[in-house]
Design brief:
Elements lengths: L2 E2 L5 E10 L2 E10 L11 H9 L10 H6 L6
Antiparallel strand pairs: 1-2, 2-3
Length: 73
């Protein structure tokens, strides 16, 4: 997380990618509360949050690992 986004309901984040050519840092924005990362906050976001309530994050980006419910194996 980098800080406030372009509006009060958005947050800036950075994603790091490592490959053979080096490191790429991609900066973007997410809507607060958008657990499904589909650009809106609705019941499906609440459902994703409820399904993963109290889950333990074992590494990586906690939003993507748990809050976004895009679990890594």
């Amino acid at each position: 997380m980098l800080g406030s986004g372009s509006a009060s309901n958005r947050i800036r984040y950075a994603t790091v990618t490592y490959d053979a050519t080096g490191v790429t840092l991609r900066v973007g924005e997410r809507l607060l509360g958008d657990a499904t990362l589909d650009g809106v906050t609705d019941f499906s976001d609440l459902a994703k949050l409820a399904q993963n309530y109290n889950a333990v994050v074992t590494g990586g980006d906690p939003w993507l690992a748990c809050g976004g419910c895009h679990r890594r194996s």
